[in-house]
Request: fold
Amino acid sequence: MNRERRNTLLVVSGVAAAYAAFRIAPGFGRDDLVFEEIDDPAGFQRLTAGQSSSGFDPFVGLETQEDADNLAAAEIRARQNICAALYHDLPTTADEVPVASFSDYYCPYCRVQTKRLAALEAQTGSGIRVSWHELPLLGETSTLAAKAALAARNQGAYPAFHERLMRSPFQATPEYLQSLANDIGVDHARLVADMDSDQVLEDLEISAAIARIFAFIGTPAMVIGRTVIQGEVSERTVQAIVAREREEGWGSACRVA
Reply:
């Protein structure tokens, strides 16, 4: 398979950002939350917070036929078990609420929301577990950073790479990634080799397919249990949705008891 053509799917220019109207819910309480059911995939709902999604698809017009075929195949795989695709290791009970976060390292809203989610997850008794998805929409440096983070996972360094890339003021050039690898203690030669591995490209394709399934129009985006959210939301909103998902049983969308 031509990897450069596969990468066309993953290198989405700033055109996507220009069209993406981010929905920001600054501080909704539980009584303020308004949801709308999603027909496909069944069992999920979307948080409505002000302006509704325009439905813009950032992948339209930016694919070769091979790219389109790869994305279609990834969507089929994701739909076979959408919750496993979202949350990776699915909780076995509804007491723990899973969160799937979709972000781009150079999206300023993502940096705020990623820090917020990481802090919430680290709180004792928070009852949430975050699965991080790379959705590089802002050009080649975004894709390079996403591939490096996923490749670092093979050396147990994904959390370290993810954290550093999210707060770094520097662009992800090959030189910066080498410096970062050396600083964290990652084998740089192996990192570079793994960045173009089939596994990394497939992970990016699956995340892109999920973004299409849930009609994400940009980053940040996330799914909390069975609630789909576009845009940055406040800590209070996240906590309110987590509590609601725990009480109402997010597992209904995933066949979790």
User: Anything to note?
Assistant: The domain at 3-253 is CATH 3.40.30.10 (Glutaredoxin).
